[in-house]
Amino acid sequence: MRLPFFVYGTLRPGEHNHDLFLRGRTQSEEPVRMRDVVLYDGPGYPYAVEESGGVVSGELVTALPQEYEELLAALDRLEEYAPGDPRNLYERVARDVVRADGAACVRAWVYVAAPAVAARLRARGTRITGGDWRSRC
User: Where is the Gamma-glutamylcyclotransferase AIG2-like domain (predicted)?
Assistant: First the structure.
C-alpha cells in the first residue's frame, strides 16, 4: 500500500529530522490529527501509544511518487522498524487521520510504540499533555 505518512515528532516541519529525511521528497504536507493515540516523551523523540480518547497533532506527508519506496525504507530504518521483529521500538501501522477541516479522514502509515515499549510507557513514562510534541518545552 502506498499510503501517506502521519508524522508527529522529529519529522515535523521545523524539527531536526524533517530536512534530513523529507526535504525534496514530498508532494504535500498538511496539518492533521490522529484520534485514539497519546504521546509519551522519549530520549529526544516522542512515542505514540494507542489509547482510546487521545488526540495527537501532526502532519500528513505525501511522498513524491518517484521517492516513495526509498522514503519508506529510510523511515523504517530511522524508526528501527523491521516487519515482525520482536525487538522493534516502533510498529508501522495504517490508521486514519483527520484533516484540519474535520471533514475528511485519510488512511496513513504511522509509527506507534511497539507493545512492550507501550506497556513500559503506560507504567512509568512521561505523557505529553495536549498531544503535541512541539508543546513539550
Answer: 5-134
